[in-house]
Amino acid sequence: MRSRPPRRSGAGDDGFTLVELIVAVAILGVVVTALARIVTSFFIDSATTVARLNVSHDEQIASAYFAQDVANLGLRDQISQATLQSLWTTFPAGSCGATKGTQVVLLTWDDIAWDPIASAAKDTIDSAAYVVEVKSGQNQLHRVFCTGTSVTSPTLVSDVLLAHNVTTPLPSISCVGTGCPTAGPPTVPASVTLTLNLKSSDPGNRDQTLTVTLNGQRRQT
Known about the structure:
This protein is α+β, with helices and mostly antiparallel strands. It has one domain (48-217). The chain is 26% helix and 38% strand. The radius of gyration is 32 Å and the shape is elongated. It starts with 17 loop residues before the first helix and ends with a strand.
């Protein structure tokens, strides 16, 4: 009886040699390292972009409000209307925003509107107070808007967050024209500049301070 030769295993049953396994692991390590760098770079770039967009958004919102409020100071002679339409760096007691956070600047102006019930013009005082408030452990620049019959009897209308991550030095005011008062009667300069410093939320530059300048021009004509 003829004996059969031993059956050889198929190629698919041989498995990997040690050399092949080492080469595969080395190649996989190179690929994973490259992908990790790409993914990490993507997330860092995305966070940086978001941080810059947030600062840009805050700057645009704050600039729009501030320019409008300074323009509202108008043309009135402040010798006779000092309490109606003015700029204050030290808020009067009881005025809009006087009890909220750190005072930056208070802008007040008179606004005449028609009262349909009394069938007569009604003179009210509008106030826009810029203050630094602490919310959830973060310094924020807020615009507190009020209206009332006088500077010291306001009714709160709104409290708008203008800028996040306000850091030292705290916001400051400078003026062109009659200048900003530090004490005594308020004044109305030709233009007003508010400078504030914002702390970057960029993960790669968390200690970076960004200086933002807001400008407002009082109406001259």
